[in-house]
């Protein structure tokens, strides 16, 4: 029903930008047809576990996504956060770059890395909405404590309020606002946050709008998985045909909603795992594709995975590199020899400092650094892996390689030329440049 409603609105507004924006962001070139899987995930306490200072489940998800899904699937983050507070989280946590970002509880939709806003969506939210009236009416409730200025947005007015008061205030407010001619939606989340939005906004409506646009273009993802933990996520679970996972740490108000509204829906599970680990669990549960993160593979030689994907190749190499510097693998010459066998002996690595060196020399240097990061919470992840086959056995692979060491975080935009041999990929040439603003203070400390 939600979908039909949005479809009607959709026809009324001046046309949407979803397809054009996705094309501009280069996403449609990558996904030639329908996405195999679209994951639409909340961030706080769903993708991101604030109790996990090492971000292990998030890093497990990242490795899984870049190895097996990035090339033909869509990653959508749908958060209650405003653009500024989303940016803060990105600077703090190892989040991947999503293809689509839905912000401020479904009131803002943006596309691609550069986050091009969907102005059609914003325009559509103005119907029966007047922010000033909302502010005026809510000021009559002293129990409502306004959230910080950065969380207040054109189509979102947010407060904190105690659980015991919330229900009563919500019903009073809807009545008052309706009398003043507005059509609003009031959502309570995490037992503390109260958001007032236009009725046509929200995480569910925003997702329905995206799906509707995909449908117009005949590109509805084969599968959609929505992931959440709190009240503002529940709407996403009402969209027809989507799979849903409530992570194990879901909030009371969300579990309550599930009991009353969706208990018999076989497409929704309450995971036994927390946050991103619950998302991985759901991928397995609904058989949506590979569900073993490369981070969970101890010995790549023994596992039967698709070694012919450039994404998997890149993820695997950097995992082995991380394990070497964290001393999580045995210090053996064989390990370095195995790594070397994947690199062309005459291949050149152009270091971000501009210095050119043969691959094998770089690997010899790396070999000396065994265990140097055991005490630095050292982590490596790759983002936005993309690849193009440019010859019968040649691939050009591009990705963002991130490294976290202590409080320092660096990133290089990386291009690798690989050739595919019967037993896997060989790295032929590699070039890195610093991502603007994330250059290492000591450039010589950067290995790969
Ligand atoms: C996020 C937002 C906050 C909102 C809450 C619930 O925490 O920052 O403004 O109230 O989500 O939607
Ligand atoms: Mg959340």
TrEMBL record:
Keywords: Hydrolase, Magnesium
One example of a Gene Ontology biological process annotation: sucrose biosynthetic process
UniProt xrefs under CDD domains: HAD_SPP (cd02605)
Enzyme Commission number(s): 3.1.3.24
The protein's annotated pathway: Glycan biosynthesis; sucrose biosynthesis; sucrose from D-fructose 6-phosphate and UDP-alpha-D-glucose: step 2/2
Catalytic activities: sucrose 6(F)-phosphate + H2O = sucrose + phosphate
Hydrolase listed as a keyword: yes
Keyword Hydrolase: yes
Cofactor(s) it depends on: Mg(2+)
Molecular function per GO: magnesium ion binding; sucrose-phosphate phosphatase activity
Top class in the EC scheme: hydrolase
Residue span(s) of domain Sucrose-phosphatase C-terminal: 310-436
A Pfam entry, by short name: S6PP_C
Domain Sucrose phosphatase-like per the UniProt entry, residue ranges: 36-286
Self-association and partners: Homodimer.
Similarity comment text for this entry: Belongs to the sucrose phosphatase family.
Biological function: Catalyzes the final step of sucrose synthesis.
Name the record gives this protein: Sucrose-phosphatase
């Amino acid at each position: 029903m939600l979908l039909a409603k949005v479809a009607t609105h959709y026809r009324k507004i001046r046309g949407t930008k979803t397809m054009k924006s996705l094309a501009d962001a280069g996403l449609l070139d990558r996904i030639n047809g329908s996405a195999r899987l679209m994951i639409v995930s909340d961030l706080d306490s769903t993708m991101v576990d604030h109790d996990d200072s090492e971000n292990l489940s998030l890093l497990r998800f990242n490795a899984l996504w870049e190895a097996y899904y990035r090339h033909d699937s869509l990653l959508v983050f749908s958060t209650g956060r405003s653009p500024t507070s989303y940016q803060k989280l990105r600077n703090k946590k190892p989040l991947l770059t999503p293809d689509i970002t839905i912000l401020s509880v479904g009131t803002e939709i943006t596309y691609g890395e550069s986050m091009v806003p969907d102005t059609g969506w914003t325009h559509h939210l103005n119907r029966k909405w007047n922010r000033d009236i909302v502010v005026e009416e809510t000021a009559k409730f002293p129990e409502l404590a306004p959230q910080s200025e950065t969380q207040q947005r054109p189509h979102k007015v947010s407060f904190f309020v105690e659980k015991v008061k919330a229900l009563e205030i919500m019903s009073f407010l809807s009545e008052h606002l309706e009398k003043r001619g507005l059509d609003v939606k009031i959502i309570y989340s995490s037992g503390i946050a109260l958001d007032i939005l236009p009725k046509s906004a929200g995480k569910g409506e925003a997702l329905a709008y995206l799906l509707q646009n995909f449908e117009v273009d005949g590109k509805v993802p084969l599968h959609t998985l929505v992931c959440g933990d709190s009240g503002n996520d529940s709407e996403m679970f009402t969209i027809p045909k989507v799979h849903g996972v409530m992570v194990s740490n879901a909030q009371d108000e969300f579990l309550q909603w599930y009991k009353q509204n969706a208990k018999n829906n076989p497409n929704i599970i309450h995971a036994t795992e927390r946050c991103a680990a619950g998302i991985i669990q759901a991928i397995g549960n609904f058989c949506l594709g590979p569900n073993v993160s490369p981070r969970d593979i101890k010995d790549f030689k023994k596992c039967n995975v698709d070694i012919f994907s450039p994404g998997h190749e890149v993820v695997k190499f950097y995992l082995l590199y991380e394990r070497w510097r964290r001393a999580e693998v045995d210090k053996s010459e064989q390990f370095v020899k195995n790594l070397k066998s994947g690199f062309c002996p005459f291949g050149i690595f152009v270091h971000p400092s501009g210095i050119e060196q043969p691959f094998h020399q770089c690997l010899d240097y790396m070999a000396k650094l065994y265990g140097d990061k055991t005490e630095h919470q050292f982590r490596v992840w790759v983002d936005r892996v993309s690849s193009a086959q440019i010859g019968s056995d040649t691939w050009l692979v591009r990705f963002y390689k991130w490294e976290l060491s202590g409080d320092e975080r660096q990133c290089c935009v990386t291009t690798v030329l690989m050739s595919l041999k019967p037993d896997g990929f060989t790295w032929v040439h590699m070039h890195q440049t610093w991502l603007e603003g994330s250059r290492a203070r000591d450039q010589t400390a950067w290995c790969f």
